[in-house]
Amino acid sequence: MSIILALIIGAALGGLIGWLYASRASVADAERAARAGELQKLLDAVTDERDEAQRAKAALEADVRNFDTRMADLQKSRDELINQFREIGDKLLEKAHKDFLAKAGERFSEADKASETKLKALLQPVETTLKRYEEGLARVEKERVDHYAGLREAVELVRAGQGQVRDETRNLVNALRSSPKQRGRWGEQSLRNVLEQAGLSPYADFKSEVSVDGEDGKLRPDVVVRLPGGRQLIIDAKCSLNAYLDACDEVDDDKREACFRAHVASIRNHTQQLGSKAYWAQFGDAADYVVMYIPGEHFLTAALERDDGLWDWAFERRVLLATPTNLVAIARTVASVWQQEKLAEAAGEIAALGKELHSRLATMAQHMERVGKNLSTANAAYNQMVGSFESQVLTQARRFETLGAGSAKEMPMPPMVEASPRPLTKLASPPPPSNEDDAAA
């Protein structure tokens, strides 16, 4: 019964997974199919455990039957032994006295007690083994019940999740079908998400909804991306989904193909309109083309499968068709170029600071050289003054002391300065400093 129930559940789950795979072609359906596959793996694991438990149970039941057979054999042996003793007793009763019969009865009683003791000793391991097997069977049965309960809970969660995903998908499809404004917001938000994931900042690297005055009125692209060198990249999101969604819901192959053709025509129409706006002429430093962002790989893939010249046709009108995949590559390239630009600017600033520092060090070395020369000149003048003081002034002053006209203060002898300033030998003689260098110093 458990195998049939498992087969029914497996068949139901397989049918459910097959129906989901056949009725959905989107990424969300692929995820549900993956969840169903995981659930099938869980069911297979539970089925294997159940089969293993059944095999263990069958082995236990076989052991129980073997023990029953052994117990029956022991009981039969006991009965045969008793019968033999009875036969012997009957013969002894016929040949012996009442005392002998009494002793024989005592011996029979002792033999019965010994047999009972031996039988209990023999049956004790059997009883222990049976108890252990019963506990094992109870544990296996409990695990089987728990696994089936978990399986039922998992199936219920999958069913509830599928219902929730189906409802949310229906709401999203209805919103995208009925409200062009909602489609536009969804495309713009998807565009901003891609740019931010690529490392661009909405505060420094790109701007949203920048408007300019054109010949036909105000033009407002969805995003303007700043490029190094003052250039700009114009990106506009377009969500042409009605025909594509109709094609996904259509059962008839011819009608589905007609819807896909309408989807291609819608993309061509958006491309033509976007190219006619000539954003590159309205923004003076803009790139020579504009990027039309389609927020879904499958939207553009379905169109290219039916119109392989669509890409080249759009590029001839200076429109580059982009999906999240190649737009991420473009945005990351822009982010990398900005990073290299910042590194180059930092290197230029470092070079300018180094040049300025070197100029100031050279000016300072010139000043130090002039100070050293001035110190040498002052040192020589000081020594000359000391010599003149010693040879002329001090001699006359000593005569005042000899004549008794000196004061109480002692007149010291000024020392000569023998040390001279150390020259800057490791610096080449720089050119004479300019007024600009003096001001900088």
Give the secondary structure arrangement, pairings included.
Layout: H1 2-23, H2 27-95, H3 98-178, H4 180-197, E1 206-208, E2 212-214, E3 217-219, E4 223-226, E5 232-237, H5 242-249, H6 253-276, H7 279-282, E6 286-293, H8 297-306, H9 310-316, E7 319-322, H10 324-402, H11 435-440
Parallel strand pairs: 5-6, 6-7
Antiparallel strand pairs: 1-4, 2-3, 4-5
What does this structure look like?
By secondary structure, the protein is an alpha/beta fold. The protein is built from 11 helices and 7 strands. The protein folds into 3 domains: 2-175, Helix Hairpins; 180-322, Trna Endonuclease, Chain: A, domain 1 (3-Layer(aba) Sandwich), CATH 3.40.1350; 354-440. It has helices spanning 2-23, 27-95, 98-178, 180-197, 242-249, 253-276, 279-282, 297-306, 310-316, 324-402, 435-440; strands at 206-208, 212-214, 217-219, 223-226, 232-237, 286-293, 319-322. Strands 1-4-5-6-7 form a 5-stranded mixed beta sheet. Strands 2-3 form a two-stranded antiparallel sheet. A hairpin with a 2-residue loop joins strand 2 (212-214) and strand 3 (217-219). The chain is flat and about 180 Å long.
